Amino acid sequence: MSDPQGMSIVVRVVTRWLFGLILIFGLAVALFGHVTPGGGFAGGTIVACAFVLAILAFGGSRGPGAAFARWASSLDATGALSFLVLAILGYTAGSFLHQWAARGELFTLGSTPSIVLLNLAILLKVGAGLFAGFIAVAVFEGAAGSEKGADA
């Protein structure tokens, strides 16, 4: 009872349950990266893993991973551009990457708002970039596998 465009129904159901939780965890790691271990890179890696899980469970043509695959390169560029814009905003405030937003209470999410925004930009860049790399490897491996089958 396995679908050729994905895995078994059990894997797909478990993926549906875990997908949102993994995304929320990755976002939390990025948001609170300035007060806890983590940050944009770790959060982006977790988010990319959620979409890799979706691609593996549902196949390349269905599920949330397929929709994200179409947008991966655009989101990667958007993350890089967002980081650059935030860095330039800091430059206009005094120096490159300078804290330009008002600080909140220490050890809270609002203690350094510009770092939170930078972490979100890095999350977008890393998550989309790693997922695009996974897609590229999967497509390359699929093409190499079909060439081997044609030679045999």
Question: Per the principal axes of the C-alpha atoms, what is the gross shape?
Answer: elongated
Number of helices: 4
Beta-strand share of residues = under 5%
Low-pLDDT parts are: none
Describe the biggest sheet?
Answer: none
Measured as a percent range, the helix fraction is over 70%
The count of strands amounts to: 0
What structural class do the secondary elements suggest? Answer: mainly alpha
Mean pLDDT: 82
Radius of gyration equals: 19 Å
Number of domains: 1
Distance between the termini: 29 Å
Order of helices and strands: HHHH
Account of the protein in words:
By secondary structure, the protein is an all-alpha fold. It has one domain (9-151). Helices cover 74% and strands 0% of the residues. Helix 1 (9-31) runs antiparallel to helix 4, helix 2 runs parallel beside helix 4 (113-151) and helix 3 (63-93) runs antiparallel to helix 4. The protein is elongated. The two termini are 29 Å apart.
